[in-house]
Amino acid sequence: MTHDTAKRPERAKTALVTGASQGLGRALAQGLAAAGWRLIISARGADALETVAKELPAVAAMPGDVGDSWHRAGLAEAVEEAGGLDLLVNNASTLGAAPLPPLADYPRDALERAFATNVIAPLALIQSLLPDLRARRGAVLNISSDAAVEAYEGWGGYGATKAALDQISHVLSVEEPDLAVWWVDPGEMRTQMLADAMPGEDLSGEPLPEDVAVPALLRLIGERLPSGRYRAADLIAAR
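The structure assignment produced for this chain is given below.
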């Protein structure tokens, strides 16, 4: 009796990346696609998202705002159609009030919107997709910032939202020990968000997301490092 010892092909892993139409989200989606991941990508700008989708294989583009319950329901349906979820990347974010005001003058409605986008929406998406992530012992990657832990003038509103996201991530890592939960400071990058935060500044010396942050995040994901807070610069330095 003979036995077929050939290895079965590995199941393609599926990742959902929010805020994938530009900046870090776009670059990470491209990096994951190159590594063989199937993708579900989301962003508010439908035209920009479609442009990204045309660049990628095995992708489902779902335009919408993760703050909207109907859009989260649509993403959950896309995950079901894909057969499950291995990685959720909460990258969609808002700077809040811009140019960056001091806390003494921070508009409260703008701060409420920033918390809704940067904290409530990612948690709501995690909640809706937890059964799928648990089923595959998947991972959650929440994009944080050094503004979550450092005191930078003008960054109080944005930093407060990222500090809250850090704490949610930390508690989730304790409550869901079978998942990998990472919250990562990608460092300063040449993105539209940084340009909006620092109008008139020359950002040509800042690295592009694909040059530093993406290699660090791909290492984190590929090696499935322990749950925790990471800096992209440290992940690159440790290679």
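Interim note for the steering committee: The chain has a mean pLDDT of 92. The radius of gyration is 18 Å.
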